[in-house]
Amino acid sequence: MWIQILRNKYLTSRTLAQATIRPNDSPFWKGLMRIKSNFFQRVKFIVGDGTSTRFWEDTWLGDSPLALQYLMLYNITQRKQDYVSAVLQSIPINMHFRRALVGARWEAWMHLVRRLIQVQLSHHSDSVRWTLTVNGVFSVKSMYTDLANSGPLARSLHIWDIKVPLKIKNFMWFLHKGVVLTKDNLIKRSWRGRSNCCYCDQHETIRHLFLDCPLAKLLWRTIHIAFNVIPPTCINSMFTTWLSGVDVKLSRLIRIGICALLWAIWNTRNDIIFNGKKFNNFLQVIFRATSWIRTWSSLSLADNRELMATGCSRWEMVARVIFNRFGWRASNRLGV
Ligand SMILES: [Zn+2]
């Protein structure tokens, strides 16, 4: 019953119009439609009499809607929103297509028909099973977690899972959103001053400071040499596709290191600009970062703590070797 309520009673244009909400163009309507669609994507229908389950668009036969499993048929079907009961209650199957079923379409249709023959409608109502919980019962938490871990925007939310202090997570979030107060952003806020990078004198932007500055490039290079981790191509990819394909446990450790690196670049920069401190060389930034990683390791599990300690020593060793070999102008010598 409640499937019908959710589907038909409250969320129709007519009821919303009665509530003086204009469907289709209001943010409220769009939000409701999004919630509705997110909900039904995570539900599996257990078909009884088939009167509440949409034949093409609900998940009831297999692990995804038939519309996705048989897209070429769905594209040419005449009534995309029919219920299972409407399709299966007659012989032959009550389905009409706008085009002839030939070739691959015929094959697909035969494949589907073979599966439909196994389906027995009953006198019970359809029910739903929530696919994200073991007991099949809907929980807000399971939906929230699933939404947070899927979708292009939400993927960046792994920031909040990294085992670093909250202020560092906030900093990373601001970085992702492009609102860290580098000089270009300050100028947009009517700040008057030179926009030069304190490390190299070029125009300071977020991308420059953390990726393109010769110092940043050199720092990323040390990581590449020490851990064979290729630097991200842009700030956005650092939070999304970068590290996809890397083992999950390993990528979490790498992200802790990257938080430390970026935080060290930022704090060293602030010390130079606001506290008049002198910048000596890139080792300064790396040792700052490793000391934070060692401190933050207390937030991680014991076996990860050990890996983090080993990683810090390795990074420092590689940095020292580069420094001893090329000096503080290593960036020129390494061609970064
Ligand atoms: Zn620079």
Automatic annotation (TrEMBL):
<dbReference type="InterPro" id="IPR026960">
    <property type="entry name" value="RVT-Znf"/>
</dbReference>
<feature type="domain" description="Reverse transcriptase zinc-binding">
    <location>
        <begin position="138"/>
        <end position="220"/>
    </location>
</feature>
<protein>
    <recommendedName>
        <fullName>Reverse transcriptase zinc-binding domain-containing protein</fullName>
    </recommendedName>
</protein>
<dbReference type="Pfam" id="PF13966">
    <property type="entry name" value="zf-RVT"/>
</dbReference>
